[in-house]
Amino acid sequence: MKTIQAVSIWQNGQVKFATKLNLSIIYDNLRDSATFQYELLEVLIDSDGLEYTSIVSQNNILMDGQDYQDWNGNNDYPYTWSANKLNLTIL
């Protein structure tokens, strides 16, 4: 999970502010493409002062072609790549 510059998202009649990006790989053919599920998360604090997250938006994103070839197994690369594709800024 990475902290991102806050983005406003309309959800159920309210504006929510996502400040976290979470990625999960859901498919990788180990040759030329991988599919990730991304979640944009709002950080909330409960009455005890504990932080938790709530999903504001989620979808899948496909990495293929040269982007996949450039991925050298580094876990940060998919975050940087997806943030670029989604027009997000990692802090």
Major beta sheet summary: 4 strands, antiparallel
Beta strands, count: 4
* Count of alpha/pi helices: 2
Structural class based on helices, strands and sheet pairing: alpha+beta
- What percent of the residues sit in helical stretches (DSSP H or I)? 10-25%
Percent strand equals over 45%
Quaternary state of this entry equals single chain
- State the domain count: 1
For the residues shown, what is the average pLDDT? 95
Q: Give the N-to-C terminal Cα separation.
A: 12 Å
Poorly predicted runs are: none
N to C succession of SSEs: EEEEHH
Mass-distribution shape: elongated
Strands of the largest sheet, in order across it?
Answer: 1-2-3-4
Explained architecture:
With 91 residues, the protein is of the alpha+beta class. It has one domain (2-85). The protein is built from two helices and four strands; from the N terminus they run E-E-E-E-H-H. It has helices at 65-70, 76-85, and strands at residues 2-11, 14-28, 33-45, 51-64. Strands 1-2-3-4 form a four-stranded antiparallel sheet. The mean pLDDT is 95.
